[in-house]
């Protein structure tokens, strides 16, 4: 019961947008309905069949939550697929760089604990007794090249100092 209550509590904020979407009723079946045979007549000495028991209240709630979550997942599926495709492309382009980075680090035990400087930079120093690091891979080297906009030639000049204030143009409050 606590699991059902927790699921209902978590799903409740999503109910408004889900019900606002609307749902068209299914189209009626175009096939003719087959004729039904009358129920068989029981023998005189057979006991009457037990009446079907109504479902427990928890069963209706569980079924409702299950249907709601299934519909929510069906609505979100195309968006989740798009997100997966977008992230897949990014991971594919960063894969070689991350592989080169892992090769360059070689073994984490060859490094000291990270240290944060006052300006926020984080430094991870290689231990003095560690073997020499492996060479940097081509994908990582290409990523670390400055972009054309980062070159010193394209850097804008420093801002000019502001002109002196003219006391005649100031308003006293």
TrEMBL record:
What does the record list as coiled-coil region(s)? none
Tell whether Signal is among the UniProt keywords: yes
Biased region (Pro residues) positions are 25-57
Q: Where is this region: Disordered?
A: 20-62, 125-173
Q: Does the keyword Signal apply?
A: yes
Q: Provide this UniProt record's keywords sorted from A to Z.
A: Signal
Where does the signal sequence lie? 1-20
Q: Where is the composition biased (Basic and acidic residues)?
A: 163-173
Superkingdom assignment: Bacteria
Name of the protein described by the UniProt record: AAA+ family ATPase
